[in-house]
Amino acid sequence: MNRRHFLATASATALLPIPSFAAQNTLRLKAEAVTQQILPQGDGATSMLGFNGSMPGPELRVRRGERVSIEVENGLKEGTAVHWHGIRLENQMDGVPMLTQDLINPADTKTYSFVPPDAGTYWYHSHYISHEQVARGMMGPLIVEDDLPPDVDRDITVLMSDWRLQEDGALSDEFTDMHSVAHGGYMGNFARAFLSQNEVKANDRVRLRLINGATNRIFPIAISGVNGSIVALDGMALAQPRSMEEIVLAPAQRADLIVDVSGPVGFNMMTRQGPYRLADLAVVGTNADRVASPIPALSQPDLPAPSEPTQHLTLTMMGGAMGGRHGGDNIWAFNNVSDLQPDPFGSFQRGETVRITMVNDTSFPHGIHLHGHHFFEVDGSGALGDIRDTTLVNAGESRDIICVFDNPGRWLLHCHMLSHAVGGMRTWVTVA
Ligand code: C2O
Ligand code: CU
Fold first, then answer.
1. What is the pLDDT of residues 404-414, one digit of tens each?
2. 3-286 is classed in which CATH architecture?
3. Whole-model pTM?
């Protein structure tokens, strides 16, 4: 097997860090073609798409509760639209062509404006032919700063993805290769993480913001050289910090960790062949001022409290290869229906609490994302569990979620394995 078949690792090449904008109220993004060194230094660079000359796009930092305007200029040769993943924003700012806005045509600019209600780790990405535009690189971190940040020495974003590259670094363009679409989706043969800083000191306490920006790959992550806890999932603070032994991120999911640095830091994707290095953080010097203390919980989110559900819907994932029962007229479906239809999957009154049973009747895992809201996963004991915007449901399993639909508008509900979404696994709901 050639080393590109998932085995070269990204280690030890100091990359330029993800550029960052300090929190401000007006930000500018230009979608454009970029060239990025994805493969290790010395191998070919990759022509892709990005924002403001880089892939990933710059880290946008905004303040919780303050209106931000983001002017998106389209420097591409095709249309685009940008989705602010996980932000509970006004429907017309959600960035979904045909459902919430017209395409931004080449050379046009659209201003998105919203007030982010929740501090945390989010990201932005193209939502137009996203299985292709995101695979080409149209993504970046979106950080909503805490009113009262936790006591850490550094705050580092770790955006991971994978790419299907040829020997010379060129991106393969088999984005709709039907075999992939019917299986786990278009996946890369090379993965890495981009960091917003390249070094730490021994003994530093660091907040790590992990984002899975891959179009289809689930990342099981292990981090060497640190001890600490998970403090937030999908932007939402956990009530209690949690052990970080098992971090599994479906596409679009995020996890925030607070960790203490004990040695050189390595971010690893766990594979059957062993750890695959996604990125390194060099340790330079020692922080003598940091006194050991327990990992604190972050400030708790302010979400509407669920009441007794007034509707209980079932969303059954169907289709795909290997015995998935085929429903709908495309490769994938929900409840026998593929793609967006004129009628929504659910119609809710504003403020209504709804229970949705998500049944995975296929041979593949799916990460299901609801726009405009966060929801509770119902845990094994029937209690309200983690608050998420994307939930991973493994093959043959099911998961209930409870959501207070308090955000008016038309919202997508889709698999965030973007090959599955384009293959039909998407629908929408309406909140009046
Ligand atoms: Cu992250 Cu419909 O998107
Ligand atoms: Cu899927």
1. 999 999 999 99
2. Sandwich (2.60)
3. 0.96
